[in-house]
Amino acid sequence: MKAWLVAAVLALSVPAANAQTYVSTDVPKNISAGGAVTVTSTLWVPGPLFIDSLTVQLRVIHGWNSDLDLFLVGPTGISVELSTDNGGASDNYFNTVFDDTAATAITSGTGPFAGTYRPEQPLATFQNTSATGLWTLRISDDLLGFGGTLEDWRLTFMAIAIPEPDTYALLLAGLGLLGFAARRRKTFGG
Question: pTM (2 decimals)?
């Protein structure tokens, strides 16, 4: 049996990891200056997707970064703290990317936060779980006096598509044909 043929069948039937980005459509959201306010925004991720890694990108216009607590909540209710009370009197998270592999932790960064930062809790918490479902970005403003706006946010998954049953059937059929061809070749000396 030709090794390249087996490799080809396996490569065609086992899904490869790929990056997929999903953008929230229910923004912008006002963050009141009234204090003790929580704003939520959601986005739907169709499936089936299995999470290898994840990044979060957001843009928040706000007059006092250290008033803000940012959390990402997954479809199963798992919550990850992205940033809480960081940045002092600085303004804005401007196209800020949260990525576990970033060189700088958000707690060591200075506002305005622009660039890539490690979140306070690892996004790897979501690793090896399904991405399918409703994701929520939750922003709380701790104090009175400064308000702002959640302008936009998105999630990018390095994900592996969960194979559908027909994919497994195709793999088994391909392997069966390879076995049949190998046996026929051995039996008839071909």
Answer: 0.77
